[in-house]
Amino acid sequence: MEEVIRKEGDALIVPDNPVIPFIEGDGTGPDIWAAAVRVFDAAVEKAYGGRRKIQWKEVLAGEKSFKKTGEWLPLETEEQFRHYLVGIKGPLTTPVGGGFRSLNVALRQRLDLYVCLRPVAYVPGIPSPVKRPEDVDMVVFRENTEDVYAGLELESGTADAAKLINFLKETYGWEIRPDSGMGIKPISVTGTERLVRAAINYAIKNNRKSVTLVHKGNIMKYTEGAFRSWGYDLAKREFGDRIVTWDDCGGDVPEGKILVKDAIADAFLQQILTRAAEFDVVATMNLNGDYMSDALAAQIGGIGIAPGANINYESGYAIFEATHGTAPKYAGKDMVNPSSVILSGRMMFEYMGWQEAADMVFRGLKGAIAAKTVTYDFARLMNDARKVSTSGFGEAIISHMTDQPADA
Ligand SMILES: NC(=O)C1=CN([C@@H]2O[C@H](COP(=O)(O)OP(=O)(O)OC[C@H]3O[C@@H](n4cnc5c(N)ncnc54)[C@H](OP(=O)(O)O)[C@@H]3O)[C@@H](O)[C@H]2O)C=CC1
Ligand SMILES: O=C(O)CCC(=O)C(=O)O
Ligand SMILES: [Mg+2]
């Protein structure tokens, strides 16, 4: 019988043999998925001795879907993610400068997965370009449904672009070059409040020290600046007894309180390199969050190991996915690092309440890295590594799954 994960009130009800839909992904997606699914199944088997098992169900999107169905993102795929509540996906190609819009963004928008959750923490043994990668332990909450990612754009030279440019001149007196392409950046109270609320709730639940609102509000006053103001207002209104702001305490945070502060995005990007330990949970808008998550990933070894999740905390819908893209030059070479999808699976197990399986995945991964068995991206920065393939790294993770606690 088909077992389906469902949400009842605040609780996620997870059967022992849940159906979990997956998208293999384009480019390196199939290589990574083949390694990752073996790791997931091994972790569940070792953690629960056969009592639990995932029933994987492939759903189509991207190039594979287009070849089979003529559609890039069939409605059925979206419906399957809704039906089964929790899913996982590989990266999907988005053409640059034209063609169809991002399927990744479309899925997030259609399921209203408003949080893009990207934890960035160092795993010992991984080569890093910074002196103190262990100082990086941040959790990025990136707003996932609006900002310039809303896809509201008009192409330069079109009648529609000309119409908008004329309207803006007539209505506001704005002078915009007639050969401009136009894009809209919506940032709403609704989008901001639910994102910041999720970030603060996460900080409380996980005993984190601070939540930093990152914005470019000095320049984009009514979008990014408003995000900052609405974020502070929400924090004070809904979490007044749990948080303090910099103005309240001058940085001297009372025991048990979470500091809510803000940083302008350009300064933030240099401070995460110079003073990484001062940042913890970070809440920001879509484009900033996209840039920041890759930049932060670089500090802990690169996007090959940076996981992520797209979540709606009210409906419970969640799609787990890597931070990186399709890395097309390595497609089919069984070469890239599968850690990002594998650690996204670890996040998925945690979300499902399968902590033992999550710990098993992490233990295996830490063991493989400690043994210096790594893929090309890490091997090229290490002197004494044993370079293995995508599938070889998956096998190494499985062979290092032990019964020792994750942080032993
Ligand atoms: N969520 C999604 O599905 C995403 C999709 N994309 C899409 O992916 C496509 C390619 O984007 P691109 O900008 O090249 O970014 P990618 O993230 O695909 O690749 C950029 C570089 O990052 C490194 N990298 C990526 N993945 C891995 C991995 N698993 N292991 C090791 N290193 C890795 C490689 O670096 P090196 O060359 O140094 O080895 C690679 O050349 C685009 O169509 C883009 O839109 C992009 C991001 C997210
Ligand atoms: O959708 C895409 O192609 C890119 C998205 C992206 O870079 C991200 O979400 O991190
Ligand atoms: Mg990105």
Automatic annotation (TrEMBL):
The modification N6-acetyllysine is found at K131. The modification N6-succinyllysine is found at K89. InterPro entries: IsoCit/isopropylmalate_DH_CS (IPR019818), Isocitrate_DH_NADP_dimer_prok (IPR004439), IsoPropMal-DH-like_dom (IPR024084). The keyword Manganese applies. The record marks Y149, K216 as: Critical for catalysis. Pfam families: Iso_dh. GO terms for molecular function: isocitrate dehydrogenase (NADP+) activity; magnesium ion binding; NAD binding. Its cofactor is Mg(2+); Mn(2+). D-threo-isocitrate binds at S102, N104, R108, R118, R142. It comes from the Bacteria. NADP(+) binds at T93, H324, G325, T326, A327, P328, K329, Y330, N337, Y376, R380. Binds 1 Mg(2+) or Mn(2+) ion per subunit. Its EC number is 1.1.1.42. The modification Phosphoserine is found at S102. It catalyses: D-threo-isocitrate + NADP(+) = 2-oxoglutarate + CO2 + NADPH. Keywords: Glyoxylate bypass, Magnesium, Manganese, Metal-binding, NADP, Oxidoreductase, Tricarboxylic acid cycle. Belongs to the isocitrate and isopropylmalate dehydrogenases family. Homodimer. This is Isocitrate dehydrogenase [NADP]. It comes from Alkalispirochaeta americana.
